[in-house]
Amino acid sequence: MADLSIKDIAEIAGVGVSTVSRVLNDHPDVGAKTREKVLEIIEEYNYIPNNSARNLKRSSTNNIGVLVKGIHNPFFSQMIKAVEEEINKKDYSMILHYNEKNSNDIEVAIELIKEKRLKGLICLGGDFDDLENNQLLNLKTPIVLTSINITEEVNKDVFSSVIIENEIAAFEAVDYLCKLGHEKIGLISTGEGDKNVGRLRQEGYKKALKANGIEYNEELISFAHYTFKSGYESMSRLLDKGLGITAVFVTSDIMAIGASKAILSRGLRIPEDISIVGFDGIEYSEYFHPSITTVKQPIEEMGRKSAEILFHLIEDKKEQQHIVFKTELLKRESCKKLK
């Protein structure tokens, strides 16, 4: 359906244009039933109730949105650079938006698509399990979800994705520690409450322990967010328990660097006293001392593939694609074999 004007909304609702305007501006002198009716119609027809968006409707844009969950993780910085290079090659413009506070990532995506009249959207991180939201689908904007776990229940015909096998990668990392002789292996993770990659990486940790005959112990788990500080604090809580941990698996490199700082600040040594493995393969992990063993994701390749898929959807109207990249365990200086 063609974009509607405020007059069209008024006609559909059976009210005057001034009434619709008062609803949009949240004036108190509109009856509750009338207000509710107008708002329902606005939502149903994806009306964009602001001047900047109405101006954008008059002309086609070449805007590609990149929606990033959070602002702290340097993992996404490399990926954004690769995406931007591909967008520039196609003479499109990149609209970069960070979602730090709003927990409803789909709501933010809908608003960004409408406000900027996006030709397509790449989402880096976030929770999109409710992707079949009608308001989002009605926009008919191609979407690529990158580094995002989507449950099997979601219809994969409505989006494309670029991911890794998070559970398998985490399993391999923890299995490596087990094979080095470690049994008291801590975990610093965003937790099972994280519907995205954190849950899968924690599941990989559990399965690796089980495969090596090691009992899962919740006391060895500490939760954190994707920041250096949170990793530091989480590791400090583990050390305070005095459980004799000899190794720790951390589900992101920035948290692993924070955790390493906490270990060293206690006068402990890495890897002589505690071995540590991170996840992502960001550059910081290589130049920390000692360099941190980590699961490397092909970050730039994932970014380029995300843009490539999006342009296939926009320009060639191709079918949705779901790409799974392999990871690599980079064995560095932070792990020690126990005697």
Write the layout of secondary structure elements.
Layout: H1 6-13, H2 17-24, H3 32-44, H4 51-57, E1 63-69, H5 75-89, E2 93-99, H6 105-116, E3 120-124, H7 134-137, E4 143-146, E5 160-164, H8 166-179, E6 185-189, H9 197-211, E7 221-223, H10 228-240, E8 247-250, H11 253-265, E9 275-280, H12 283-287, E10 293-296, H13 299-315, E11 322-325, E12 328-330
Parallel strand pairs: 1-2, 1-3, 3-4, 4-5, 5-11, 6-7, 6-8, 8-9, 9-10
Antiparallel strand pairs: 10-12
Helix pairs in contact: 1-2, 1-3, 5-13, 8-9, 10-11
Describe this structure in words.
The protein has helices at residues 6-13, 17-24, 32-44, 51-57, 75-89, 105-116, 134-137, 166-179, 197-211, 228-240, 253-265, 283-287, 299-315, and strands spanning 63-69, 93-99, 120-124, 143-146, 160-164, 185-189, 221-223, 247-250, 275-280, 293-296, 322-325, 328-330. It is of the alpha/beta class and 339 residues long. The protein has a 6-stranded parallel sheet with strand order 2-1-3-4-5-11, sandwiched between helices. Helix 1 (6-13) packs across helix 2, helix 1 packs across helix 3 (32-44) and helix 5 runs parallel beside helix 13. Residues 4-58 form the HTH lacI-type domain. It comes from Anaerosalibacter bizertensis. This is LacI family transcriptional regulator.
